Amino acid sequence: MKFGYFDDVNKEYVITTPKTPLPWINYLGTQDFFSLISNTAGGYSFYKDAKLLRLTRYRYNNSPMDQNGRYYYIKEGDTVWNPGWQPVQTPLDSYQCRHGLGYTVFESSKNSLNAKLLAFVPVHDNCEINLLTLTNYTDAEKEFDLFSYIEFCLWNAADDSSNFQRNFSTGEVEVAGSTIYHKTEYRERRNHYAVYSVNHPVNGFDTSRDAFIGLYNSPADPQAVRKGFCSGSIAHGWAPVASHHIHLKLRPGDSVSLVFVLGYCENPKDKKFSAPGVINKEPADRLLARYQTTEQVMAAFQELKDYWTTLLSAYTIQTEDVRLNRMVNIWNQYQCMVTFNMSRSASYYESGLGRGMGFRDSCQDLLGFVHLIPERARQRILDIAATQFPDGSAYHQYQPLTKRGNMDVGSGFNDDPLWLIAGTAAYLRETGDFSILEEPCTFDNDADSTAPLMEHLRRSFQYTATHKGPHGLPLIGRADWNDCLNLNCFSEEPGESFQTTGPNDGPVAESVFIAGMFVKYGREYAEICDALRLDDERDAVLKEVAAMEETVMDAGWDGDWFLRAYDAMSNPVGSKLCEEGQIFIEPQGMCVMAGIGTDITEDGSPSTAARALRSVEERLDTRYGIILQTPAYTTYHVELGEISSYPPGYKENAGIFCHNNPWISCAETVLGHGSRAFEVFKKTCPAYLEDQSEIRRTEPYVYCQMMAGRDAPTHGEGKNSWLTGTAAWTFTCISQYILGIQPTLQGLRINPCIPSDWSGYTCRRIYRGVSYDITIDNSAHVESGVASVTVDGQPVTGTLIPFDAGKKTCKVEVVLG
């Protein structure tokens, strides 16, 4: 069942009913100011940090779902309605929501009065613009009232939602004409304020929620709207809001356009307050002056559209599959940019209160956006590295505003260090910019403890190399990629627990998954050393990698698949010896991607890697994707930690984690299995699941983190959409492993691994400033193997096209066979 359709020409998803299975959202913003907006105009706005600088309130886990937002109440006689349907929920004569790249458009009508609402964040200003156009489609004059409404957050969203004894006495606003200023705590220590304005004279306003809504009313029935006028309230403490009342008359066929601006303003640091609580309106005046006319707004909107057109032109394909084209060319890359901006901090599932930017998360996200914004990727790497500890371990998260490690979450996730190598290596392959390795980076943001980025990578590698357990496998620490696999937490007696704190302290659980990472990213680190002519270090790294590969084959192989781990008592996890949780997805993907067990056997039997992937297909695969492990845990296992706390089929307990499904797809290409790789890719790809939106429930244009596994009553139901490493890994999978356009330190390698029924495709790839027009000919209908490569008409030996900075364009023709 569909609730809308893709408009590929305009790069939009068009939603045709407000009653989607879940709120279907979009992200507005490209630099520092961001808004979340749903298909019913719900959501919230913030500047840089969703926790510390949130402008508007949002109520999670509420009923009705999806409350608050940017609301416009239209009152004509006794009829009150909203362009986005919520919160009044008056049935509309027509409704449409178009989510585009960085903007959303609502177009609705009631009683022949049409409302078109365009919402976007301009590229270069810290504000959200709402352009509301109202049109009278009758043959008689219409007279009606319009009420805008937002509810301010008192900046720190965590404190705002809990510290009522203080907050109910701090709210402050100021009103000047059609502009409402939210200045709570400005008198104290803040140098910023929020502004909400309209480019039209107002008939009234309210800034007190109690006055506008009514103490025992809800936003679905505000008393000011019911009465038809605002009271001019000025909030003193309690809950500050902003509402404009505008009385309008429209002759037949006439339209009126109103520009509403919600902005973040900051005083220049060298300017002092003129008096406590008195704001400097100059920053707001300058901001609002840029958006006083429809022409100004549309010029900014065009700039935004041009921004996205240019950005997404770095990688475009044309295949016979329309759904694949739209995901690669539009939505997957767009989602990668959103995850660059947000990491896992602010969505409809992440409240923005506890999590900041993830160390592991942000490093993986780099894989999906480094080709789009290499200069910003460079800074992101340096920001991440600055949170690392001197021993090579790292904070698991850091706050985007302060760029300091998150003390609440702490460290101890032993996969984190290796992801820094992965992200940096991806940047080097994309840009060839080795100067980043010379950039000084602090350890733990301590100015007295600084070293070049290369030293940070060195310590990342050495941390894993020096933290091994009894079997010679890497210690898992608090957890690895699977945050819920907590193998060093156990209890022998009620109330007693143990957490390992070092390589020799008590139980030493080990991770086969980290071992696979160590082999894969150790080799990438060795390539970096080789490029820098650090021959001795390269050889030492490769020696460590070879030893780990041998250890995995010795201690990490279970006969038909790779083990997942050893727990704190050295019992295997993810083994046929286990009653539950016999096989896990993660090591099968990562170890094969690393090349472990891929050697061809002398007797022609399947390689170790092939046997592992066959076990995945036989035991873990479902119609909606590959589950994380099987059998699901049916009872709580204290020795395994949080993984068994979930009901069977959800999240880490045999749910379908879309994030690691691409690892299996990538692994299949390593073995040349193009058809199987694409089969795995399609199962979690939203565009291929659009017809089943009533089952999946989440947005059909972006990936979600997980779907319920076959052990769950709601098999196939999606959750945690938008902010997921799935975006980066699926784009890496399809663009580099399946379509086979692979950046290397030396140039582009073209090595497709595709379904045999494909005839071919074309790709335009901007790489280090050179435009590559690539044609793949699969007339032979093979899954892998390159028969010939020509570059600008000249044959090339092998699959690598060395980078030539003297060229502006490059025509590449590849014949498979």
Automatic annotation (TrEMBL):
Record SUPFAM superfamilies: Galactose mutarotase-like, Six-hairpin glycosidases
SMART domains: CBM_X
Domain Glycosyl hydrolase 94 catalytic as annotated: residue spans: 307-740
Domain Glycosyl hydrolase 94 supersandwich: 11-293
Gene3D superfamilies (UniProt xref): 1.50.10.10, Glycoside hydrolase, family 65, N-terminal domain, Maltose phosphorylase, domain 3, mpn423 like domain
UniProt entry tagged with the keyword Transferase: yes
Keywords: Glycosyltransferase, Hydrolase, Transferase
Record's keyword annotation contains Hydrolase: yes
InterPro entries in UniProt: 6-hairpin_glycosidase_sf, 6hp_glycosidase-like_sf, Gal_mutarotase_sf_dom, GH65_N, GH94_catalytic, GH94_Enzymes, GH94N_CBP, Glyco_hydro_65_C
Record domain Glycoside hydrolase family 65 C-terminal: where: 747-797
Pfam families, alphabetized: GH94_b-supersand (PF06165), Glyco_hydro_65C (PF03633), Glyco_hydro_94 (PF17167)
Name assigned to this protein: GH36-type glycosyl hydrolase domain-containing protein
Taxonomic classification: Bacteria, Bacillati, Bacillota, Clostridia, Lachnospirales
